[in-house]
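Protocol step 4 of 5: obtain the predicted structure for the target chain.
Materials: sequence only (see below). No template structures provided, no constraints applied. The aim of this step is simply to have a reference model before the mutagenesis design in step 5. Sequence pasted as it appears in the construct record:
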Amino acid sequence: MQQGPGRGTTPFMKYLRVLIAAAFVFVSAPMGCAQPRVVDGVPIPSHEAAVMPDLIRLYDTDESYISRFARVGWSSDRQGRLGGFYEEWLARLDALDYAALSPTDRIDFHLLRNAVEWSISGLALERRRLAEIDPVMPFRQAVQDLELSRRRMEPCDPEVAAGVLAGVAAQAKQSREQLVADKKKGDETSPEGLRLSAAAAQRAAGIIDDLSRVLADWSRFYQDFAPDFQWWTRVPREEAQRELSDLSKYLREDIAGLKGKDEDPLVGDPIGREALLADIKGEMLAYSPEELVKIGEAELAWCEEQMKVVAAEAGFPDDWKQALAKVKDAHVPPGEQAALVRDEARAMIARLKERDLVTIPPLCEQLWRVEMHSVETQRTLPYAVYGGQYMGVSYAAESMSHEHKLMAMRGNNRHFTHIVTPHELIPGHHLQGYYAARERAYRRTFSTPFLVEGWALYWEMRLWDTGWAGATGQDEAMDRIGMLFWRMHRAARIIVSLKFHLGEMSPGEMVDFLVDRVGHERSGATAEVRRYIGGDYSPLYQCGYMIGGLQLSALRQELVVPGTMTEKQFNDAVLGQNSIPIEMIRAALLHQRLEKDWEPSWKFIKTEK
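Step 4 output (structure tokens):
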């Protein structure tokens, strides 16, 4: 939900504006004021101006600047440059006159320092993960050095480069042959052999694919312009890329078992408790992984009890899953799903405006659309998602098998769609994204799923409390079952995702949990788990929905229930803080003046010791 530079604004112009703004702060202090502090030759603005927004913009711009140049992934050069950059910024922040910062600047100070510290821990995790798989990639440094030498504009000797490429090909072939031999030996592999888990093999395959692309980019730079370059390097480079491809394919298909088919095993890369604790600190939560699991279990238990009550009202007193099955069968005919989403969205907008619950700008209300997910997309996105001014909708497609058509229709039925639509559009992600691009946009670098997804889940909770079920003329009990299904799903996400990363639940057990405890179709549950563990989301992303929603609900109890704010004032104020950790939003709305040694401490839900 981040917005790039405005129309007609190049990245350079954006960066130049930041420097000019910072320079203005440096030189415009009145005579007699203390001179700006200097750290490592870099002037730090004094407290006479609101300095943190400019510092955050400068940090964000410089980090992107370094990352673009040092984009050779998993290289010691990139890790060293970024590591030094982060340490430099910690020193800059420590040099600020914190006592004189305004309450808002203090919030931004902690957001930035937390982001820097989290990035340092991320580099440490990257180094640990690289160490696990480096033995299968003895050629990694040689390939990266070729590209780094080009980026440093050092002369390239084609004959020397050809020798390096020949060595890469030989090492890649040797690694593959060793892996094949060790796989045949099974448990009798010698200590000198190569043994990788499926997760590590998948990770290594991805890095090797990147290395092959690095070689292609490196070659394109020279091949049409440097005399004799192709004569020396074409054959050994093609051989090196062929061997890299064969090694990557063997790791991915024969060791990880991933062949791009529906029946592929579920392979993920759990990060472990230590890394989870670092991520929880980065998300500014005052809980352990185990405490978060307990919250998820308590919420799931509440949902199950409510589901039994509502199922009885719907005529199924003995088995709520029978009631859920009836809900799933209430789907629209093929071709009508987009119209259903349109009508649900318009009904929701009308309700919000009628009750004056949140400000909906005209452009936000008018400029959104619906897109239908392809069959391939639905392998990992079996339900609707927000894609940026559009809601991506999953539904049965002509090319699907009969079984998958039925499951796609059941998984995107009328009553599920009744609550999914406001989650994705208004007042959910579409409204949120509109504000995030306009209100304190400099904070976009701190975006967190606990606000991004938590905001949408908070509205699901509010709509449950305020009677959205049945509001569009559908059966109220069926709508409530649909709403409870998704709420159960978000509670289950906390449990399965954290237990996976703690090493307490396998991917297969995750699927079974979603099917047995939540009532998912097995294909939908499998697609969900494949997405959770695929590495495209942070390990805590799935927790963000329910935990973030509970945080916002607790904050509403503090401000709206006693009458400090109206409902609309509260919702607008949350949107105005951008997508930052919710304890920081709480600090802003409660006008807290944070101390420099502040640490997350808000226990918005009590957990048993």
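Step 4 remarks: Residues 1-42, 44-48 have pLDDT under 50 and may be disordered. The chain has 23 helices and five strands.
Proceed to step 5.
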